[in-house]
Target: Oxysterol-binding protein
Amino acid sequence: MLSEFSEVQGQVKVLCEERSNLLDTLRQLEAANIEAETAGIPDGEYQLTKHEFSSLGRGKYSEYSTTESSDDIEKQELEEVSDEDGTSFYDTKEYFTEPTSMTEAAKYSEKHRRFNQLDSEEKMRADKQVCSSGYPHIERRKKLPDPVEKEKGVSLWSMIKDNVGKDLTRVCLPVYFNEPISSLQKCFEDLEYSYLLDRAYECGKAGNSVLRILNVAAFAISGYASSEGRHCKPFNPLLGETYEADFPDKGVRFFSEKVSHHPTLIACHCEGRGWKFWGDSNLRTKFWGRSIQLDPVGVLTVEFDDGEIFQWSKVTTTIYNLILGKVYCDHHGMMHIQGNRQYSCKLKFKEQSILDRNPHQVQGFVEDVSGNKVASLFGKWDDSMHYTTGDGTGKSKDRITSSNATLLWKSNKPPPNLTRYNLSSFAITLNELTPGLQPCLIPGI
Model:
């Protein structure tokens, strides 16, 4: 029995050596490919790969099996590395010790993975509590009121089949295609994660300018999180119509107004703790038969009390499968966040392909005035964003695939009582009449 155990142990050691040689070869090939790439963000997906000991013996040896050739081992290892599809994010470095068995190795890896995820989530909750400290708690509704009457479906194709290639802002659609908020209120949805700007202000005040722009970038991305599953259009407000929101529990006050009818132009302004946010919003829409393309026009600005300013424009949004198939939306294009001081940020929203099994990817980097990359960030616009920092001397892909990524932002969970509008928990409260607003209404309304 002891001799058999020694034989198996020797086989495992040989396998570890073969695997180490294979990984070294892969790193050399990857380095050669990176050097051949042009400057910018590559189209490939950035992933954090976690190497677990449990994958070493998967399907390779049984207790009484004979030793396989080194060529077969390398081929099988290469297939396992290329088949890794899942993206795992970690905010601490991992240190592995050799376990006594493969079963213990799997348990150890799973336990370590859960610990890292809990650690990231606990940090995020702690940051939210710090940013929201001192704000009063206001109980808000958790669901929309029940509809008075049952809504009737209308064929979208019958309404817009004669408007292919035209601007849909001039096409009248039935109310069935609207969600129960207006475009004025939808602008305020970008402030759902305003704690990121609170945190950016504190980071800048502490002298960490890199972390400030990283939080601003996360804020710019977070505005798209609520668009997943939202296929209805907001109501078009009247010319001169306004919307005002006072959320003391978030520490923000917001005001928006429709200032132009054709083209539709909405201006907004928001004040938070140590920062101001303003911008104008306009959409150029085109209908292409099976999809609608929305090209935003306008600039969004964040100014902190210390004078630092960041500006950016939104990316293109396309809604697919309007006639046949499951309707879904995707955001794609480049977003440039320009700062008036030392740092700026470039983000790439990857366009989703038909066979893409990992959609909604966002990749980007922060660079200084000299063009040196000092940090990289990556993730999904509907889920979370992570970042890594560096001195700007290495390749961006090397830093992104490292295991020291830190959680920057994570989207809120959807409400338990979803309707066909798929509004977020924050959007449900946008036109809620809270007790504090009741005395402000005009008598008789």
